[in-house]
Amino acid sequence: MESVARKPDSKQEQLSLMADSAPAASPDASRRKPPVGDRPAKRAAKADRGRGRDLQLPVLGPTEMAGGKSERSSGHEAEQASGRAAEQASGRAVEEGKRSSGRRAEAASGRAVERSSGRGAEAGGSVASPVDACPDPAPAEAPPSGTNNQQPTTKNSPSRRASAESMASKQRDISVAEFFTKNRHLLGFDNPAKALLTTVKEAVDNALDACEEAGILPDLDVAIRQCNGDERFRVSVRDNGPGIVKAQIPKIFGKLLYGSKFHSFKQARGQQGIGISAAGMYGQLTTGRPMVVVSRTGKGKPAFRLLVRIDAQKNQPEVLGEEQVEWEPEHGTSVDIELVATYRRGTRSVEEYLQQVAIANPHARIAYHPPAGQGDDIAWEHVSEELPPEPKEMKPHPYGVELGMLLKMLLSTKSRTLRAALVQDFSRVSTRVADEICAVAGVKPELRANRMQPEEVEAVHKAMQQVKLLAPPTSCVVPIGEELMRRGMESRFQGEFFTSSTRPPAVYRGNPFVVEVGLAYGGDIPADEPADVMRFANRVPLQYQKGACAITEAVTDVAWRNYGLQQPRGSLPIAPMVLAVHVASVWVPFTSESKEAVAHYPEILRELKLALQECGRRVAIFLSARRRAIDAGKKSAYIKKYIPHISGALREILGYGDAKEQETVECLEYVLERSRLEGMKSVEDEIASTVDPEAEAAADDGGTEATDA
Amino acid sequence: MPDSSMVKAIRKVAGMIHEKILARRKPNLKFPLRSLQNVRYRPQIGFFELLGKMKERTLTVGTVKTFAQTLRMMSLSKNLVETDDIATKREAYYVSKNWGEARFDEQPESDQVMEDIEALFRVNREQIGFIPEEKGGEVAGKLVVIDKDRDTGKTLRIDCTKFGSGAYSIPISVEGLGFQTDAKFILAIETAGMFQRLVKHNYWKQADCVLISMGGVPTRACRRFVRRLSDEKKIPVYVFVDCDPYGIANIYRTLKVGSGNAAHVNEFFCVPKATFLGITPQDIIDYKLPTHPLKDVDVKRASDAVKNDPFIQHHKAWQGAFEKLVKMGVRAEQQALAKHGLNYVIDEYLPQKLAHPERFLP
Fold first, then answer.
1. Which of B12, B19, B64 has the highest number of chain A CBs within 10 A, making it the mutation to test binding with A?
2. Do A653 and B25 touch (CB under 8 A)?
3. What is the mean pLDDT of chain A?
4. Number of Cβ within a 10 Å radius of residue A688
């Protein structure tokens, strides 16, 4: 049933990769071995809600070999795999490896699953599933041809070390807890300091998303208290959101991979449905304490307080206690997690993180209560009293769809024919375009969409990239907006100059995105240090992996010297400057599962640079205006030095009296001051004319189009 | 007071500036542009004539200092004229040290402003009370200069044949001088060294002439002296300089037709009758003179002269001479004649050249 037959090349490539990490893998291992791995997959599928079928993956051979042999490295692999998955449909084997190897897949592939379901990056499941679903005779399980095909790729294993059967005996479920413990870094719990930050981040993301979805102006209260022992902290995050119905509370907080945003193709902060429960899990693992959740859904309704624990073996919530409590807020949710952590101040501190959240969410009010002795309470007030417009959900654009996704979409489409499926399920595909795609692919538009052969689907996928299409609709991306961005910066920094630039929506791989930059300059911002670059993706601050991020690259690539700033070669500019760079998209491409760095798509880099340059130009104008103001101060004094000589010499020649001299001096002052102002005006015009945005854009433009092949 | 017209002119300009200021408008001063671009060579009148190009100095933030200095200088000038006093260029520079912020830091700055004023009023700097410190040049030979004793007012007759191995020094102002001579020509010599040799051997006696040492580019006084002498006594002027672009385009041309920088006074400070005795490029060949290679600056000066100097452009002969010089790539000094014997210049070269004044370059 493998797709080996269909895509031998990619398969091979994948396998050879695997072979490197697990040399013992034998071709036999690529035999299908369903029952063990199936259960967790099903569980994941449950979380998947509705599209679960896709996740009921048959467990394929290569998987086991990855899973069975290299559990320890599986985290790494998973990370790699999902990275690749985003890039190439052939991530299948590894992806499946993750899945099949047990529970760890459920957790690890939180992001991967999201991807796969979001945009079909994960080809594995989808490639496999049509076969599952199709009554047509599926390719034989581990067909000999497949085995033969793989043979050359496993050169590193000259002799067999284990049979499929012996391996099967070792293959078993891996609990979420087990996976989590081994792969906590994937979810942002690498070390105690980061764990604290991640916990706050997940709770805050959830709170903001909940408020926004309900149309409530967010008002958050974040508190961290030190518990007995240096390393124990209690994180409490309270929001004024809509609250959660009591029955849902355990699932939302006590079950990984449970959420509402899992599959939506729209701009949102969190998507994986894993964050807050992972934080709870971390707390539970390190302190043994359950999460405490208080929620109330409205006036006149009771507030409930629940102690939620995660059954790490089953990935099921356990409610340890439940009571109705008096709670002041009319509606909202509060979550308390106790965890082992390190409290840090300064860079990458909770305080800094929340400040950045406040900048990217000017409509939110955030109050922060640090632990005793760690600074004063802070509150970032609303900069805007208006909620950002709700991002619209969009249908996938053909250019951004990957093969696995396409397979899955066709399989699950409500439409009968291929033509109808294309028109109904994709954006920018009309009947005419659908027919064109079919013509290029050499398939009939009348084919039953869910009965198509993999080869046909692949042809359609290829054809999709060749047909000329309108760019996807951009209304689904909601930027912070120039004004709010600037006001946000103004309210958070004591600078002299603020500006911001929001680019028009652009498209990479069929995904619309918007880049915006806010800039603060001067004032209290340290002058002799590299500019502070705050990175945001869908309003979420990115804290780690700065160097791997396209945003950082764009900032260093811009020639800040052109704007009068210092910049060592290949470095950030040295200036009293803070940059807030936001990438908003229905799908922000991250370099890895940890969601910490934006991937280097040329289209994104280009937009980033254009926005940065726009802000840079304004800084240059500000700087030259400030310089001129200083010069003008000098000039005024300069003029005053010579006026007495002009009037004095004229007086000597013409012989007039004191009164006349006084008048002459006054007139001279007037004339020269006017001349000074004219001079300044001409300098300004000069600057305006030398900085031509179009010319600069053209010069910097790598010539990339918004579409890709 | 003979120069009350000068005072009036200064008051008039100052008055105009003052009116503009009181009207709250930017006052400006217009000066004739003093450069070769703003002169024309008119053979009929024989010198560089100033054209109409003007440079304007409008009072702005950028020009306020120069503007103040110009007015200060005008005021000083008016003062000098009124009190019948003079100040050398150097002295004027030191006077400016009283002007506080408006003082000049270096003398070239004050010279520049002074020349601007001179050009503004189209007068010679002596008329506005400023004099140069430089010596005017030296004279020996068959000439009696008639001057006045400053104290007694008595006429003084200065016989230039009676300075022995020394010479008469041309004063800064030559307007009051009278001349008596029966010399056949005036020989204007570039270097003091050649002048000394000719004086030492009383060449003026042998050739019946007046010898003048210019010492490089002739001063205004020297040019005026030669001009007046040749005009009044109707005697030709022959110029004897080094054969290089500087000797020809700067020394000879300035003596004959004036300069770009002093274009406004060329009318008085030129000697249109002067002709070029030597050393010519052809002389280098004819007399097999030892040479030095032309330096880069020489080549540049030559090409500038051919391209931009209206005088050289006017005379085909000169263009040809320059072309020849550049082509040969060498220059020769007056004293190179010493190769053939120290007195070769007296015994052979000058007599041979003077036998054919019609062959002199224009």
1. B64
2. no
3. 73
4. 11
B69/B145 same-domain check: no
Contacts of A679 in chain B (CB under 8 A): 60-62
Distance to chain A for B60, nearest Cα, Å: 6
Q: What are phi and psi of A468, to 5 degrees?
A: -75, 130
Write out the H or E segment, with its range, that includes residue B55.
strand B54-58
CATH at residue B51? 1.10.10.10
Mark whether B59 and B13 lie in a shared domain.
yes
Decide if B72 and A645 are in contact by the 8 Å CB cutoff.
yes
Residues 648-667 on A with a CB inside 8 Å of B are 648-650, 652-654, 656, 663-664, 667
User: Is B346 found in the same domain as B258?
Assistant: yes
Residue A226 phi/psi, 5-degree rounding, is -85, 130
> In chain B, which residues have their Cβ closer than 8 Å to the Cβ of A650?
14, 17-18, 21, 71
Helix (H) or strand (E) holding A209: helix A192-214
Domains defined for chain A, CATH in brackets: 8-174 (no CATH), 184-348 (3.30.565.10), 398-466 (1.10.8.50), 482-617 (3.30.230.10), 621-700 (no CATH)
In chain B, the number of structural domains is 2
Interface-testing mutation among A645, A661, A670, with chain B (most B C-beta atoms within 10 A)? A645
Residue A167: pLDDT band (50, 70, 90) is confident
Cβ–Cβ under 8 Å, residues A422 and A447: no
pLDDT above 70 (res B314)? yes
pLDDT computed for residue A223 by the predictor: 94
CA distance A579 to A498: 10
Lowest-confidence segment of A69-78, A455-464, A536-545 by average pLDDT: A69-78
Task: Mark whether B279 and B344 lie in a shared domain.
Answer: yes
Helices (H) and strands (E) in chain B, counts: 15, 17
Instruction: Strands of A538-617 (E only): list them.
Output: 540-542, 577-585
Which of B131, B164, B189 marks a domain boundary? Answer: B131
B78/A671 Cβ within 8 A:
no
Are B26 and A635 an interchain contact pair (Cβ–Cβ within 8 Å)? Answer: no
Enter the DSSP assignment of A680: H
Where in the sequence is the domain holding B56, given as residue range(s)?
Answer: 4-131
Is B62 close to A649, i.e. CB distance below 8 A? no
What CATH code is carried by the domain that includes residue B271? 3.40.1360.10
